[in-house]
C-alpha cells in the first residue's frame, strides 16, 4: 500500500487529519523527499489532510509547492461540487431519483466537511427504472460515455457507465456491484432511508444512509485490495465509534462478511496503532 520510508510514515500519520493531530517539525520537512511525498499524497488521495496537518503545525510557508497543489485541489473540488449540484437539479427536474455515492458525500458524512476526501470522479446511484433518462441528461450536459453501448445493454454485465468532459469524470450506477446478489439492497430501500449532507454552504444532497454507506465503502476497499490509503483512513472514524461499529458488524453478520470485517479491523490497528479503539 505504501513504500517503506520517512515520506510514507509522515503521510500515514498526517492522513488522520482533521480527526487526529500529529507533531511535525521543520527539520522533518527539510529532510523529506518532498516530490515523492506529494506523489504519494496524490496517489492515495491524501493531499488535503497532508496540507491540513502541515498547516496546523505552522509549517505551510516552508512548502509553497504543497500549498499550490492544495489550492488547485480546492478549486477542482469546488468545480466538482458545482457539477454534482447541477446534475442533481437536472435529474430532479426529470423525475430521476439519484443518490450521491462516495467522494464528497462520504467526506461530509464522516468528517462534517466535503473537502477532506479527494475524488477523481462523481458517482451517482440512479433509480434503475430511470437509467436511460439519466444517461440522456448526462450526455445533454456535455459528457461523453466511455462504453459505446446503450445503458440497457450495459446493465446486463456492468454496474455503471462512465462519462468524461475535460477533467471531470462521472460514474452513473444502477446498482452498487456488478453482481446484485453481492449486496442486495434495492434502490427503494436506500432511497427511503437516505441521508442528506452539505456539499456547498447550505446545498444539501441525498446520499446513502450512514451505516450502509460505510459498509459499502468497506466492501469497495476490500474488493480493490485497499489500493488507496484514503479508503482505509476513512474507516478510522467509525472504528472509534461504538454505535458505528455495532451497526457495521450487525450488517456484516446479516450479509456474511464478518471475516472480512475482522480482517479490516486488524489492518486498521496495524496501520494506525495510536488511534483510540472502541473496545466493545
TrEMBL record:
The protein's name in its UniProt record: Nucleotidyltransferase family protein
Species per Swiss-Prot/TrEMBL record: Elstera litoralis
Lineage: Bacteria, Pseudomonadati, Pseudomonadota, Alphaproteobacteria, Rhodospirillales
